[in-house]
Amino acid sequence: MDQLLPQGLLVPSRRPGSLIGRLAEGFARAVQPIQSTTISTDTAGLIAGEIALPVRDGEIPAYRACPENGTDLPVILVVQEIFGVHEHIKDVCRRLAKLGYFAITVELYARQGDVSTLTDPPEIFAKVVNHVPDSQVMSDLDAAVLYAKATGRCNTARLGVTGFCWGGRITWTYCVHNPATRAGVAWYGRLVAPAPAALQPAYPVDLAPHLKVPVLGLYGEADAGIPVEHVEKMRAALAACGNTTSEIVLYPAAPHAFYADYRPSYRKEAAEDGWQKMRAWFTKHGV
Question: Which range marks the domain in which residue 74 is found?
Fold first, then answer.
């Protein structure tokens, strides 16, 4: 797999097999109370639960869900929001598993801290998220692909990636990092850097010339953090390099996190349409 991003900071070495943290139970404190629109997907017919994912410096927690039976399963990496791998992200994995995918999500903040107990999003960024190197994230996602392959039930040649909020930006980034990925779907991930940052050196508008994987971007017209101006800038960056395989959908009046059914930002019509578009996108591109 190609590595287009710098390695960033080295993480402390740990003995092989040492586990760094555990996944959060339930929903992160910053998003409570959860809304009555919250979707809960059961595990009937699935293998689902937390795993210890081997990585270069030990093990970090992850969650995977897949059908109980079958082989040659396509693989989808599910990338967390700023709130880490809490119940909503686990549920997304189960939703995908019900469709026949091997879905895996990794706690990508494990080395930097536990965000599930923090209540203030600015604090989450200041204490944890801003200290997570993109290079570390790419390596951990690569490790998830290797884990899926090692199960003997997956076809990692049929690899897709989808992510939400913070994970939306990571989706664009991973599709540049790993051009063997068949397709990506980015849900309202930042496209333009809010400020220069050594650990997050490139944002989607910067990476557009290197993008070979078809990415579907799903964005909200009323997103206060990702203005339409940034969406148009990304469209222009894709057009400038002749990229005709990626697309961006802009939902009228939809705010940030319109897919997050557990939050007041949820917009059912846009969320359901985006989910169907995601399914069609992965099918179209062989995931």
Answer: 29-284
